[in-house]
């Protein structure tokens, strides 16, 4: 802009008309002052209305210069970019067209030689400016969308990694709890029972061996400690409440399926009995996974979770009225790796239970788990001493 205004002033001075040279130089200086004031005003940088007023004042000084000399035509080109940069597109395009038209009319009005370039030059410059600015803005918007997409992808990846770490931690806790319960705790319980049987096997009136009593108490204390470890490694949902309370809370609105998910109803059948921690963990995890499948894949309106205690087993049924699927098809979710069903089956079978899925397209899905109730420990009795008493 400064170079174009200086060019107009120099050409006016070189023309030899002093009065005209003074007028053109003054108009060029005034336009340069208005142009330079724009970036220094904070309101112009922050307010679109203030920028519009500044553009109007700059355009008025340009029209004055254009009326004095046809060389003011060249200042139209930077004005195109200002209009496109500061005004919305619906107002910038008419402003650019008006600027190009004013430049052509002023050039013709000054009596300059008329040629096709007079009518093609300003509109062609306006078209180049529009294509350049709109192309740059489109590229900028596309880069912004990509940047936001990358940020969302990074955030999602971080959240997924955190969720996987949390799931891995919970899975490892459950595995340790199951191993401690099935090996260490059961072994200590057997040792405790055997030591009690050894005490009862002593002849009547014989003093109890102190080391047997100490060993029995040590086994009992360590069994209590192992059970405490199992309880501490249980899922948080089971730390405060029973399995029934945890399942009932899981079926509350918004707990497992979100506000937009299906309505879930919980039902309890039979008389609840205490279950080993691995049983409670397996049943709770299977219910959570089945409801998650209902939300993600079934598009169901209603779902039901039923926990049933029977004489020799405990069963869990999760039923929905969703889209369903064909379990016998090659791409069925029951295939390896689909929808978490293999993991549910593995949980149930690891405890000696059964796992079944019933579904049909358009008929909903039913997941059934049955776990045998553990038998109470049988007291270990020592063989009766031979007739005649101990030797």
Automatic annotation (TrEMBL):
Main localization, broad class: cytoplasm
Which keywords are on file for this protein? 4Fe-4S, Cytoplasm, Iron, Iron-sulfur, Kinase, Membrane, Metal-binding, Transferase, Transmembrane, Transmembrane helix, Two-component regulatory system
Catalyzed chemical reaction(s) = ATP + protein L-histidine = ADP + protein N-phospho-L-histidine
What is the top-level taxon of the source organism?
Bacteria
Reported EC number(s) for this entry are 2.7.13.3
Picking any one GO molecular function of the record gives: kinase activity
Entry-linked SMART domains:
HATPase_c
Limits of the Histidine kinase domain: 283-375
- Transmembrane segments annotated in the record for this chain: 56-80, 92-112, 118-139
Record carries keyword Transferase: yes
SUPFAM superfamilies for the chain:
ATPase domain of HSP90 chaperone/DNA topoisomerase II/histidine kinase
Subcellular localization(s) per the UniProt record: Cytoplasm
Which cofactor(s) does the record list?
Answer: [4Fe-4S] cluster
Q: What does this protein do?
A: Member of the two-component regulatory system NreB/NreC involved in the control of dissimilatory nitrate/nitrite reduction in response to oxygen. NreB functions as a direct oxygen sensor histidine kinase which is autophosphorylated, in the absence of oxygen, probably at the conserved histidine residue, and transfers its phosphate group probably to a conserved aspartate residue of NreC. NreB/NreC activates the expression of the nitrate (narGHJI) and nitrite (nir) reductase operons, as well as the putative nitrate transporter gene narT.
For this protein, the record's PANTHER family field holds: NITRATE/NITRITE SENSOR PROTEIN NARX-RELATED, SENSORY TRANSDUCTION HISTIDINE KINASE
Q: Report what the protein is called.
A: Oxygen sensor histidine kinase NreB
- Which organism was this protein described from? Streptomyces changanensis
């Amino acid at each position: 802009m400064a170079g174009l205004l200086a060019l107009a002033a120099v050409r006016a001075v070189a023309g030899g008309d002093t009065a005209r040279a003074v007028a053109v130089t003054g108009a060029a200086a005034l336009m340069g002052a208005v142009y330079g004031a724009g970036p220094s005003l904070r309101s112009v940088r922050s307010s679109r209305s203030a920028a519009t007023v500044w553009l109007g004042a700059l355009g008025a000084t340009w029209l004055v210069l254009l009326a004095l000399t046809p060389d003011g035509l060249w200042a139209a080109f930077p004005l195109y970019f200002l209009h496109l940069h500061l005004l919305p597109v619906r107002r910038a395009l008419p402003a650019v067209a008006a600027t190009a038209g004013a430049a052509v009319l002023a050039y013709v009005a000054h009596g300059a030689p008329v040629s096709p370039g007079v009518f093609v030059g300003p509109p062609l410059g306006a078209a180049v400016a529009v294509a350049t600015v709109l192309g740059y803005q489109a590229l900028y918007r596309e880069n912004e969308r990509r940047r936001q997409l990358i940020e969302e992808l990074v955030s999602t990846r971080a959240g997924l990694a955190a969720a996987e770490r949390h799931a891995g931690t919970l899975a490892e806790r459950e595995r340790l709890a199951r191993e401690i319960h099935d090996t260490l705790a059961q072994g200590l319980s057997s040792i405790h029972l055997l030591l009690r049987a050894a005490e009862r096997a002593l002849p009547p009136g014989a003093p109890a061996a102190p080391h047997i009593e100490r060993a029995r108490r040590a086994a009992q204390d360590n069994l209590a400690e192992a059970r405490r470890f199992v309880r501490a490694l249980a899922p948080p949902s089971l730390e405060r409440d029973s399995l029934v309370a945890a399942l009932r809370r899981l079926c509350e609105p918004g707990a497992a399926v979100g506000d937009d998910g299906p309505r879930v109803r919980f039902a309890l059948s039979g008389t609840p009995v205490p279950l080993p921690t691995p049983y409670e963990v397996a049943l709770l995890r299977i219910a959570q996974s089945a409801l998650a499948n209902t939300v993600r894949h079934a598009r169901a309106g209603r779902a039901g979770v039923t926990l049933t205690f029977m004489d020799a087993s405990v069963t869990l049924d999760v039923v929905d009225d969703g889209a369903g699927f064909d379990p016998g098809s090659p791409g069925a979710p029951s295939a390896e790796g689909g929808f978490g069903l293999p993991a549910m089956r593995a949980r149930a079978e690891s405890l000696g239970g059964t796992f079944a899925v019933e579904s049909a397209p358009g008929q909903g899905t039913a997941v059934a788990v049955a776990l045998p109730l553990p038998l109470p420990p049988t007291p270990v009795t020592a063989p009766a001493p031979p007739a005649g008493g101990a030797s």
